[in-house]
């Protein structure tokens, strides 16, 4: 039985973290207590800590995570995304959003924007202390989408599914055509290379850093460039760098009927010009993508379990939760695409 729980509580920009201990929470009906095995520092956690992105404080951050079910609340047993009963001892990941399933946005198939959404790693400590991955345990709300993690998949790799991986699955869902452009070869970009290549696309990457371009070739890209080139057109383009000035150039690189998916811009900044005549004549589509639906999380776990791509190489050595401040420094320095914390 759990008696002591530790959480790295983020106090706000410039205030940093403090480790708090607490006793095990009393679980409500349908709730689940998960012991964290691994949690990764995502780029948006960095934005939050550096004050570029609004987030409640104090709170427990961390929304890329994997853990083991330690206790179940009373009442109906939670079910996985494949409708299996969740059991104590299961190794699991869970969606970063928990939605009501009944509001107009849920009804439209946008549960990640539910009018009553609760977000893991993004909720005030007072209302829900154990909401994030940078802790020894997380208290899952009833109804949170949960996916089982196969034994073959290391926890730290599985953790990358819950933000980066599932976001890419959501972005490229239903993509058609032959040629794909991926802009930016960070964590999201490498996922995009791997998933699009498996779907049969010929993948080109725009990425200014030579080392990242080389790595993209090992994740399924067949051609890389340090930026836009005049003579290539793409059926689908996925913007994952967050570099706004590239957006008009990505639109200009679309083949007739092409689609530009924007998923990389997650903090405020200046607007960029769009040529509506070119979009009309090109039958172009530009679409934003943020977070994902439960099935995208399951698809990501299935994808990782079957993939031969070296995702584990993108992760740092595991660092203890107590060293979270240094871990954020390492993430900021780009020592690995994902710095991994273990409680
Ligand atoms: Zn809803
Ligand atoms: Zn994230």
UniProtKB/TrEMBL annotation:
Cofactors (names): Zn(2+)
Cited Pfam families: ADH_N (PF08240), Glu_dehyd_C (PF16912)
Domain Glucose dehydrogenase C-terminal positions: 175-332
Family: Belongs to the zinc-containing alcohol dehydrogenase family.
Classification via PANTHER family: ALCOHOL DEHYDROGENASE 1-RELATED
Ranges for domain Alcohol dehydrogenase-like N-terminal: 28-144
E.C. code: 1.1.1.1
UniProt name for this protein: alcohol dehydrogenase
Upper taxonomic lineage: Bacteria, Bacillati, Actinomycetota, Actinomycetes, Micrococcales
Natural source organism: Arthrobacter russicus
